[in-house]
Design a protein that fits this description.
CATH architecture: 3-Layer(aba) Sandwich
CATH topology: Rossmann fold
Strand order of the largest sheet: 3-4-2-5-6
Largest sheet: 5 strands, parallel
Number of domains: 1
Helix content: 40-55%
Number of helices: 19
Number of strands: 7
Shape: globular
Distance between the termini: 20 Å
Structural class: alpha/beta
Radius of gyration: 21 Å
Length: 429
């Protein structure tokens, strides 16, 4: 049976109930009533009430929160459902921040945890980062952040409680509801409560993150994020890992997000012994797929239908990330990370992991290799559909994008990928 094919155009909200909700919201907006309130004061009060504490563990989140909300109000054109979703996302982020700060006060020993030599994957989305992070975290001595942990961190799950933690079912239910509303995104990106999550989720606690930009078109916030000090976000990131590690000891973390690429100095100040891997793939395929994915995510929450502006915004973000990484590469002298081409990873994923370990004078254990073999045999048997995308949808061509990123491709010897048949699912999606 052929899996259904989805593009970003298949992500429109079809629920009669939610369409009626949005219709009512439009009438309220027309009468000058903005429901719910998207002010920083309203969101902070809601987070404090939900967490049962007034202490936000510092004020570093206030500037990014206000910057983001100002962009949402002025640029995103959210539907009522979108406003509810964005408010809920921000309230939960600050709730996590409050609860983490309280947990660290009540358990000061968590700050003694040492996050040693974490694997940190910094490649753009769609470059094999999910596959690589899963394979690395199959090492019995390593682990990734799971989706449900990033969604509701405190209390950190313990060795005794993690397997049956009720937050897993709660997260799975929420994700199931999202995929039911928007099945297209299930074909474009893996979702699951116990799947590895991008560690960018921990930056959410300081509202300095690419994660909030996938929900809404907020270009002014994006410009602010590219130049802001990311140290407060890394402080939240590290404290969250320390709390999780104190409850469930691990030898090494597996972390990933392209957000690291434009603040590599801050990353290495926080984790000086980080083992950084930069995955590389033809930007034509990467950026076209990413533009489709983000448009699909945003269409659930907005009245906007200008898919070109969203695509161009993420083209700019991708260029900024790549150029920031290349500039750091120049300054650092080339030995700060390991470069891994997507083509090599996909040709033989387990061999690629062997080479990643070999760079540090190590080899995967026999158990780790066996676990990777079994996982690879199982991989791909449960597909939610096929993601189809075309650069012409966004006013681009693959050759044009290849030329625009010529310096990057030549520097890291990245082959240009030709168009994939629409009958075959892109293995990185």
């Amino acid at each position: 049976m052929t899996a259904p094919a989805y593009s970003f155009r298949d992500a429109d909200l079809e629920s009669p109930m939610l369409r009626a909700l949005n219709w009512a919201g439009a009438r309220l907006a027309g009468a000058g009533l903005e429901v719910p309130s998207l002010t920083s004061e309203a969101i902070i009060r809601a987070a404090q009430k939900r967490a049962g504490s007034q202490d936000l563990g510092g004020d570093s989140f206030r500037e990014p929160l206000e910057c983001y909300l100002q962009a949402v109000r002025g640029e995103a054109d959210l539907s009522l459902f979108g406003r509810l979703a964005v408010k809920g996302m921000l309230v939960e982020s600050l709730r996590n921040r409050i609860e983490l700060a309280r947990w660290a006060r009540e358990h000061p020993e968590v700050r003694d945890e040492r996050i040693e030599a974490p694997w940190v994957i910094v490649g753009l989305p769609r470059t094999g980062t999910s596959l690589l992070s899963i394979l690395l975290s199959l090492d019995p001595n390593a682990r990734s952040l799971m989706h449900w942990e990033g969604a509701r961190l405190i209390p950190p799950p313990t060795l005794a409680t993690a397997a049956e933690d009720p937050r897993i079912a709660e997260c799975a239910k929420e994700l199931g509801q999202l995929l039911e509303l928007n099945p297209a995104i299930g074909a474009m990106h893996p979702f699951g409560a116990t799947l590895a999550q991008e560690c960018v989720a921990l930056f959410m606690f300081d509202v300095r993150t690419l994660g909030v930009e996938t929900q809404a078109y907020v270009p002014s916030y994006g410009r602010w994020l590219q130049s802001c000090d990311m140290a407060p976000a890394y402080a939240q990131h590290k404290l969250a890992l320390q709390a999780l590690q104190a409850a469930q000891p691990t030898a090494r973390w597996v972390l990933k997000t392209p957000n690291h690429l434009w603040c590599l100095e801050t990353l290495l100040e926080s984790y000086p012994d980080a083992r950084i891997i930069w995955t590389h793939r033809d930007p034509g395929k990467v950026i076209t797929s990413l533009a489709s994915l983000v448009n699909a995510l945003q269409r659930t929450f907005t009245n906007r239908r200008d898919h070109l502006a969203t695509a161009d915004e993420w083209l700019g973000k991708s260029r900024f990330a790549i150029e920031s990484g290349m500039a750091y590469d120049d300054r650092a002298g080339g030995d700060w990370c390991q470069h891994l081409r997507f083509a090599d990873l996909m040709k033989d994923p387990i061999d690629a992991v062997h080479k990643v370990y070999a760079r540090h004078g190590e080899t995967p254990s026999a158990l780790h290799v066996r676990r990777m073999e079994v996982w690879m045999q199982e991989r791909g048997r449960h597909s939610e559909g096929r993601h189809v995308y075309d650069p012409e949808d966004f006013g681009w061509t693959y050759d044009g994008l290849a030329e625009a990123f010529r310096a990057y491709r030549e520097r890291y010897d990245i082959p240009q990928e030709r168009e994939i048949s629409p009958s075959r699912r892109d293995p990185a999606d």
